[in-house]
Amino acid sequence: MPYGTVNADVITTSTAGGVLGAGNASIMKNRIINGAMVISQRSGTSSVSPTDGQFSVDRWKCRTDITGKYTFQQNAGSVTPPVGFSNYLGITSSTAYTVPSGGYYFLVQPIEGFNTADLGWGTANAKTVTLSFQVYSSLTGTFGGSLMNAANNRSYPFTYTISTANTWTTASVTIAGDTTGTWVGATNGSGIEVNFGLGMGSTLSGTAGAWAGASYYSATGAVSVVGTNGATFYITGVQLEVGSSATGFEYRQYTQELVLCQRYFWRKSGVASAVVTVGSGMAYNTTDIRCTLPNPVIMRTTPTIAFTGSNFEYEKAASARGTLSSIDSAYRSPEASMLYSGASTTATTAGQGAIWYITDSASYISISAEL
Q: Cα–Cα–Cα angle for 316, 321, 322, nearest 5°?
């Protein structure tokens, strides 16, 4: 090949004039992460009664005005997922609760501004989007949700219908982009929040099908899942894409989906009957053993770190393992964190190398940079 000649394959779409990331693209079109509810780093398949703001499967946050009104679980009820899917997020009502005017119960995924800036919302060039998903409920009727900005002062309530109980239903909603309001651009803030109502008070519900300068998380008159004891609401295959019609769901390899989720949260966990290495480091002084914990991907922002359990240990060169009795994480960045122990069980020489371990399945480190 002559010098200066480029030999390259060309990526095309099946639609004339289509571009990657646009409505008819076959890859990079879905702005939702973990729309197939595959990744569940925090709770696995356990049933959990969430507190307000607690995440269920990755990237899906539970909002609950009062705790104890519903539980979430990956693959709750063990129903057969819709064709092409293996997982779903299940909500089960724990009460027959009448939501007051200012009450709220909903699922939300905040989409990072870097992944929505090209939509041009808040300008005359705002693009139309389509939200599609698979939904299943023991209830029937008109359900609701909304799209909202980070300031919670621009919202678009929408409705969809479940006509047959306990049957997977395909739903889609097309929304003209908002040409006014303030929307986060290409930053790591929340660009668009996608909400699915589970029971919403009247002051937080608005007329479906139009943009409003208000905080509407669902549509007026929508079915309240928490209003019926034992009611179920299952959802999967959530996709938000550019265009005026829904296209096929964008499947990603498991590793790709996991990496996308780890930008916002990941966990260093121990396992049963084994020793897991956290990282390597050195003794800073006679009582402080430090360890570098690299993040698997560059996280959205400087994370917070939480330690659960007590079986964290260290091992010095040519020395027996000792218990880390006071763990902290003052030095953190999107790339890595420096963990340190304020005390050790045996004397430590400054500069001596050391390795940190987790020695049981009940102990883990949570690293979070969620929106």
A: 100
Angle at 225 between CA 190 and CA 133, to 5 degrees: 55
d(CA 44, CA 344) in angstroms, rounded, equals: 33
Say how many residues make up the chain: 371
Angstrom distance (rounded) from CA 97 to CA 143: 17
Which burial class, exposed, middle or buried, applies to 224 when counting CB atoms under 10 A from its CB (0-12, 13-18, 19+)? Answer: buried
Residue 24 burial class via C-beta count within 10 angstroms: exposed 0-12, middle 13-18, buried 19 and up: middle
Euclidean distance between CA atoms 51 and 66, whole angstroms = 8
Locus of tokens 């005390």: 343
CATH level 3 topology of 54-245+253-261:
Jelly Rolls (2.60.120)
Q: Give the side-chain half-sphere CA count within 13 A for 284.
A: 13
Beta-carbon count within 10 A of 342 CB: 12
Residues 117, 181: Cα–Cα separation, whole Å: 14
Distance CA 107, CA 87 (A): 17
Are the beta carbons of 76 and 47 closer than 8 angstroms? yes
Asked if 314 contacts 346 with a C-beta cutoff of 8 angstroms, the reply is no
**Cα–Cα distance, 31 to 197 (Å, whole number):** 20
Residue 5 reports pLDDT greater than 90: no
Note the pLDDT tens digit of each residue in 224-280. 999 999 999 999 999 999 999 999 999 999 999 999 999 999 999 999 888 999 998
Could you tell me which CATH class the domain 265-368 is placed in? mainly beta
Q: Are strands 169-175 and 265-269 parallel, antiparallel or unpaired?
A: unpaired
| Cα torsion through 21, 131, 72, 363, rounded to 10 | 10
Is 30:240 a contact under the CB 8 Å cutoff? yes
Tell me the pLDDT tens digit for each residue of 114-170: 999 999 999 999 999 999 999 999 999 999 999 999 999 999 999 999 999 999 999
Which amino acid does the sequence have at 290? R
Domain ranges of the chain: 54-245+253-261, 265-368
